[in-house]
Design brief:
The complex is a heterodimer. Chain A has 21 helices and 17 strands. Chain A is an alpha+beta fold. Chain A has a 7-stranded antiparallel sheet with strand order 14-11-13-12-16-17-15, sandwiched between helices. In chain B, the strands form 5 sheets. Chain B has an 8-stranded antiparallel sheet with strand order 16-13-15-14-18-19-17-20. In chain B, strands 4-5-11-9-10 form a 5-stranded antiparallel sheet. A 3-stranded mixed sheet of chain B has the order 1-2-3. In chain B, helix 6 (200-212) packs across helix 7 (239-255) and helix 6 runs antiparallel to helix 8 (284-292). Classes of the chains: A alpha+beta, B alpha+beta.
Amino acid sequence: MSAPAPLSASSLPPLSALAQAAAAELSSLFPGRVSVADEDRLSYARDMWPKAILWIRQGKIPPPPDVVVWPDGEEEVQKVVQLARRHKLPVIPFGAGSGVCGGVTAVRGGISLDLKRLEKVEPVDGERFTVDADAGVMGEVLERRLNAQGYSLGHFPSSIFMSTLGGWLAARSAGQLSTRYGKIEDMVCSLRAVTGRGDVVQTPERPHGGPDLAELLMGSEGTLCVFTRARLRVQPAPEHRAFRAFRYRSVGAGVEAIRRVLRDGLRPAVVRLYDPFDTALVARKKPHQGGRTSPSARGLVQSELVPFLTRLVAPRVFGNPKLVNRAADLFRSCILILMFEGETRRALQEEGQARELCLKAGGADLGEEPAQEWYRTRYDVSYRMSPVVDDGMVADTFEVAATWDRVLDVYDRVRAAVAPLAFTMCHFSHAYVEGCSLYFSFAAASPGGDRALETRYDELWKTCLSAAMAAGATVSHHHGIGLLKARALAEQLGDARRMVQGLKRALDPDGIMNPGKLLP
Amino acid sequence: MSDLHEQLRDSLGPRYALKDGAARCAPRSERELLLVLKLVRDHGAKLGRPGPDGAPPVALSRRALQLLGPWEDASGTVVAEAGATLDEIDRAAAARQLAVGPISPRAFTLELADFLEGPYGGLRSVPGGRLEPLSLALTAVMPDGLYAASRPAPRHAAGPSLDAFFLGAGGRMGLLLRAQLRLVPLATASRLNTFSLPSPATFVAAVRRGLLGGACMERLRVESRKGRVLMEAKFGGSQTAVDRDLAVLGTQILNQGGRLSEDHLRRPEPPADQPPPLEREVRWEAVARALEQGGSAALYRLSVDGAVAEGQVEGRDLSAEAPWSPALEAVAAAIDPSASLGGPP
């Protein structure tokens, strides 16, 4: 792969007169907390969307904001939105930039609103099991503060060290323990947000009249409002964790085991079934070797899969993923990891009952160690994408959800559709009584340089989204929409996009909130 | 008679009836329902509201839409039309070893659309002390007559919840036609246990902690007894689930200074041959207050925040609509500018 095109901050588009006036006004309101510096504009121009790396390598800068502002509280957020509305300038809420769908790219410039100074966490209400927290608090900080009081949120996304509460709400985040505790929307009692009209809304707690406003705001990815605060359900810190792993002869057998466990009323905190090639990589790891990769996490593709495949096949061959996928089909067995937590007796009882069900479903008991090893390394995720692209490849992940009757069809159809374009593997997690999430990881190469790789990347996404939707899956389970899946969301909604457009008209009548995302 | 009413009568025949100052339209198909909506819209009328010329309001019944199916046994779901009652759905589900799950007696008497769109918001309890819509996916007709259909998936990150426009909205942002429902395995075992707790506060603490710990109860009945709280818990599910749930709740009750009791509650069970009594959505603080004042209640649809109560507990009347927030009113106005579906309450 050729060296990337040179990129300098001076390549950034200049500020318009309108943006300059807004920046001056913001600087007088919030001295020292406003920047138009090129370095800051460049930093806030993208999240972890791999396509942005491909752009940068070609000398294309992701559209940057004109101004970056660090407000100190809800009132200041409101002032910024009101000012933006007056100037008709876009507002792009920014948490910690861990999104993977281009949700913060400033397609029409505007004001990037970094919320990390909104970081207050109130003491836990131990009677109601709630905590009030500001939207800018980092996930790991929130969890640590809860732990210090004997509680847990139960929300552990892989990005916990580089994502905020507001980002979780904006994208309907899911954590690794979601099977027991739910996704972030299941933890919200009420929300506060500044809408695109510049007013503050507080969603009511139950009982309330009318539809659930919080459900209409969550997942809006900054296109309706800026989240400022939330009241969240917390859990007593678990007394005990019980681990177990099983081996299955096929993906279908493993999925059936999970379904039976969930339909029986058991609630493991962690459920992860790795498809055969994913399992082969997991099995390749030796416990306690200081490995830093959690299976199927973004980092796996970059730090293990890529070197592994590079050693396995010549780069030219790797450009033909059909071959690699066919090789992967030689692997057959799958590993299922379960973890139960909570009160000791209940966790042990549930683990025992799940073991019976899993054995009946044809599983071989692998003991506790594989699950414990997963737990120990669950955050060992690498975000270093550039070296992968330097090798002439691009890696990404794709997560959808479907009901049990469709899960295997989604798996087969996506793999078949993607096979000519990329190497792919999958794990099944975030299990519910009615279905689960499928998390595909793929790696693609193209011998034609960066532009060809970008074309391959776009083709890949179009193909996998189309295949998943044709099989009945939803377009995203927890990564969100951003720029990447906006067209697919419109397709999924069909005529119903008028409802979301009506919501947008009501809460953001001037269309200033994060334009171009979700439903452009 | 106004043009609108004449056209409705001509289109629906016997399924149009003028009674007690309101016109009741009972379409027998989705096509007829869409026609009613079109006529209402074309005449600038508003569903459920008197016409500008003093014409009687048009009330819509979806009772004739009550087909069930297809059933998806692996996922435990069924598609049900809007007019089927929860009780009918539950009885049909039982034949497949499935059930609607923990909702309240009055909710079982409602038509599906009324349960989903009305004050109950379509919610039922799920393990962990949370509430979740009974529906996995919805199909509705929007104010402009086009269809909105959500995708059946247990969760998503595909923008705001499309279903949230309809759940609890009283049909004011769209009218539900059918829903794919999440069913639970039919209970094969049940158990009643009575406990005595030192105070209303310890009762609430034990129940909240039990729910967070994973215990599922179909119902609680509580009353004050000599300064203590007497609580009867009804568990249902598989035998192992019932045992697990009893163990979790029992542990929390012991931790709060409570114990098993052989006393019987004075509060009688509601007679089976009469309509279920009025229900309210209540918070636990209100339940504790009622008990402090010597009250009693039956509690259903339990969550860490509260319950649906029958008895002397203050809360939101679930037989009446409550006002909407200004933000919701603005959303409704943007989606149905002419308020043909009635506009916010």
